[in-house]
Specification:
- The structure is a single chain.
- The chain is α/β, with parallel strands linked by helices.
- Helix content is 45%, strand content 14%.
- It contains 18 helices and 14 strands.
- It has an eight-stranded mixed beta sheet, sandwiched between helices. A six-stranded parallel beta sheet has the order 11-10-9-12-13-14.
- The chain binds nicotinamide-adenine-dinucleotide.
- The site of nicotinamide-adenine-dinucleotide has 28 residues, from helix 1 and helix 5.
């Protein structure tokens, strides 16, 4: 059993802290957002993540997991301090490190005994050295410490599983002893552990996210060509995926990637590359294609409806992907803004993320279910591929709509079946069927 402090109880920090507690460690999570801590102390989850509530409750009851808004209390006796604060996009496309800086300064001021500082946030290459420098400069008295980079690869919606059954653990440090101690925390997961230097570990995270985003933009470009030439990208992706060198994952054509990681991480990597004299042309193309995917939905709607002005559009899904409530950089937000700018009226439904809609959207009707979102609609747009949307009664949906136009931004329906039911259906890269 080790004593761990986790700084930041967002999607990464809360899952990390809870899972470490579940592995038997003593964990205190600290967040500067007192409302989150109050909720957690009352057993209420500040985020939606399947399985998390039960795991938090179980470990809190067992006395292995607690929450505080005081750095002092969280760091008291801790051997490890995991930094899991946000690194949002800055105004120039760079990663904004203000929260990492604040976390490092707090650690420095409080630490009274040797500590291993583990950075889980996604940070630009060189941040580990920068954090070490900040800590050194802000200590009131010199106390030994090491910095280890431990980038996180979990996905919202399957975060607990991803933490407990990781493909790999990456640890980067100039101090092999410190890295070995962090490796010990993960030993029971029996995952491959890769030990490397700080900068390489930081780069592995960016390169991984950029590669996954590239696969999405690649298949989206292929989708556009499929559409022009009458092929079905969904089947093309299946055929490609059988090739072991390619594999089936991350080949879903649609309205592009979103969320709190891919957009900002691809942008931050391109920014880093550019300011260091590189020419990140592939990364720029990945971002361009992604932007175009949203516009394609608007083109399809214009083609079906003539104009969007005064039209009622039903939007199914607000979360950036299924099984999360996260709407940060969700395609729904950009799409709804584009539709509203052309005069459309929006009625929408999402199973969990409507609680955040006010933060990102204005003048939208929030509906009780998908059928209500379709009621009287001139067109329906599928934005998030929630399972429940795959199992709707399509005849009932059609019955509710004023016009049977469907733009399926996630390719969840079968074009032939939709046509047979009397819909005018537009998928992404599937050729027209009417
Ligand atoms: P988040 O915004 O959900 O959570 C960050 C939390 O840190 C917030 O609750 C905030 O109040 C808190 N915080 C900020 N400054 C603090 C400070 N000085 N002391 C204590 N708490 C502080 O962020 P997230 O989605 O969990 O992402 C965290 C990091 O992990 C980011 O760098 C992100 O890129 C990376 N990451 C995220 C995911 C994901 O799926 N969300 C996956 C892998 C990596």
């Amino acid at each position: 059993m080790r004593k761990i402090c986790v700084i930041g109880v967002g999607y990464v920090g809360l899952v990390t802290g809870t899972c470490f507690a579940d592995l038997g460690h003593q964990v205190t999570c600290i967040d500067v957002d007192e409302s989150k801590i109050e909720k957690l102390c009352a057993g209420v989850m500040p985020i939606y993540e399947p399985g998390l509530e039960e795991m938090v409750r179980r470990n809190a009851q067992a006395g292995r997991l607690d929450f505080t808004s005081m750095h002092q209390e969280a760091l008291d006796g801790a051997e490890f301090a995991f930094i899991a604060v946000g690194t949002p996009q800055g105004s120039g496309g760079e990663a904004d490190l203000q929260y990492v800086r604040a976390a490092a300064e707090s650690i420095a001021r409080i630490m009274e005994h040797p500590l291993i500082i583990v950075n889980k946030s996604t940070v630009p290459i060189g941040t580990g050295d920068w954090v070490a420098d900040i800590v050194r400069r802000h200590q009131s008295e010199p106390v030994e410490f090491s910095v280890v980079s431990n980038p996180e690869f979990l996905r919202e919606g399957s975060a607990i599983n991803d933490f407990m059954l990781p493909d790999r653990i990456v640890l980067g440090s100039l101090d092999p002893e410190a890295a070995a101690k962090v490796a010990q925390l993960y030993l029971s997961l029996r995952a491959p552990i890769m030990l490397t230097d700080l900068r390489t570990a930081e780069m592995i995270k960016y390169a991984s996210n950029a590669f996954l985003a590239t696969r999405i933009s690649f298949i989206n470009e292929i989708a556009s060509v499929c559409e022009a030439l009458g092929a079905d990208v969904k089947e093309v992706a299946v055929g490609m995926g059988y090739d072991k060198r390619i594999g089936p994952d991350f080949l879903d054509a649609g309205i592009g990637y979103g969320g709190s990681c891919f957009p900002k991480d691809v942008q931050a990597l391109a920014h880093m590359a550019a300011i260091h004299g590189c020419h990140p042309q592939l990364l720029r193309a990945v971002m361009d294609i992604n932007r175009d995917q949203r516009r394609q939905v608007i083109h399809k709607l214009r083609e079906l409806l003539g104009t969007l002005d005064e039209k009622v559009i039903g939007v199914l899904g607000l979360a950036f992907k299924p099984n999360t409530d996260d709407m940060r950089e969700a395609p729904s937000v950009e799409l709804i803004h584009l539709m509203q700018s052309e005069g459309a009226r929006i009625q929408t439904y999402d199973p969990v993320s409507m609680i955040h809609a006010d933060l990102y959207l204005h003048d939208v009707d929030l509906c009780q279910d998908a059928y209500q979102a379709a009621q009287g609609a001139d067109a329906l747009v599928i934005v998030t591929d929630w399972n429940e949307f795959k199992h709707l009664s399509l005849p009932r949906l059609k019955e509710a709509m004023r016009q049977p136009f469907v733009v399926d931004g996630r390719n969840i329906y079968d074009p032939d079946q939709m046509k047979a039911l009397g819909f005018v259906y537009r998928g992404m890269g599937r050729g027209y069927v009417d």
